[in-house]
Design goal:
This protein is α/β, with parallel strands linked by helices and 129 residues long. The protein has helices at residues 12-24, 39-46, 62-72, 87-96, 108-119, and strands at residues 4-8, 28-33, 50-54, 78-83, 100-104. The protein has a single domain, classed as 3-Layer(aba) Sandwich (Rossmann fold). It has 5 helices and 5 strands; from the N terminus they run βαβαβαβαβα. Strands 2-1-3-4-5 form a 5-stranded parallel β-sheet, sandwiched between helices. α3 (62-72) packs parallel to α4 (87-96).
Amino acid sequence: MTPRVLIVDDALFMRRLLRDIFERDGWEVVGEVDSGDRVLPLYRELRPDLVTLDIVMPGRNGLDVLWELMQEDPQARVIMCSALGQEPLILRAVQYGARDFVVKPIQEDRLLQVAHRVLAPDTPDEPRE
């Protein structure tokens, strides 16, 4: 079965980069969102296998979205994407239920390694950065 991913980032170039990486690896990108306000309704509709979620976005930030998403679906598999220097935010994201994180600038091999591990059965929940 083809894994399905929802990409959440306010930067168009980052959404395009993530889409290209996932599609080259055989994933189906079922949606892209540029605002935290639109994530939950789209998640409910699409039910992706994985969500990539930017932390810093205008409006509702990724941490708020993650918290609400995990309250609604504790089994959601979310990878946070973050720039260097945001370690306290990353730690909070893991506490909220993110399965792992990938530091920007995104490295294709690192992202795919994390994504495949997060979807694998019997995956430990600790981040490995």
